[in-house]
Design goal:
Blueprint (H helix, E strand, L loop, with lengths): L1 E2 L4 E2 L6 E6 L2 E7 L12 E4 L2 E5 L6 H7 L12 E5 L5 H10 L4 E6 L2 H11 L5 E5 L15 E6 L6 H12 E12 L9 H12 L3 E3 L3 E2 L7 E8 L3 H5 L31
Parallel strand pairs: 1-5, 7-8, 7-10, 8-9, 10-11
Antiparallel strand pairs: 2-3, 3-4, 4-6, 5-6, 11-14, 12-14, 13-14
Amino acid sequence: MTRRSSFHPSERHPRLFSRSADGRWEWWTEACGEPPPVYGERWAYTGGRAVRAIDPHRSKLGAALLRGWRGRLPRVGERWLYLGAASGTTASHVADLLGPHGHLYAVERSAGPFARLLSLADRWPPLLPILGDARRPRELLAWIPPVDGLYVDVAQPDQAEIVAEAAAWFLADGGALLFALKASSVARGPSPEDHLRATVDSLAASFQLDRPIDLAPFHRVHYFLSGEYRPSFDRRAQSSRGPRTDWRPGGARDGGPPRPDRPRLRVR
């Protein structure tokens, strides 16, 4: 870890920093954990605070920031659900933004990446790993309360349906969506542009979406979608698996089960 003095606090978030290095713009998050690095990212100090570089080639959130995305970031102290957390590359940065008192329910279905995610959670207090399948939200109800935001990076042909189902089960009205869309997920399917358009059209019924961000050259045929969840009561009630009934409308803080003691292992 090295000391640098050229960091600039972002007006968008108290735990986000930027700096210009070698003519390139970089984004950094204030670390919620301790070294060693999570995925080989650089660490530094600024004003006595440890910060970590977001590698845009490894993190689609980092790529979106460098591509000029200006949507809503996870806020300090919120509860978020992350589907497709893998070994925690981007999830660790989302946890940084939530801060030590936030909660990130990180779902991963593959045992290998989940084992690394579980190990990372020992050092990253906001990170709450759950071994489970994003396609089966009902099986996650015991572990996940209503949340303020949803981050999805699953790279599956039914990505949009996974987003819609997860939102219906877990996301508070007015909650935030961050969605890394792989536009080439459907073999012999539509062009990436048509796939993007169809995804936007399907989500527009329940989300007020921002302008999609093309993540090239960092991630080929990937787009970053963001927006605010605005479903009608009738639409939620008509979800193919039904809405969860253990909350009241009006926000993640207004209902749902109390947060359990910090989980270390959840098996589907």
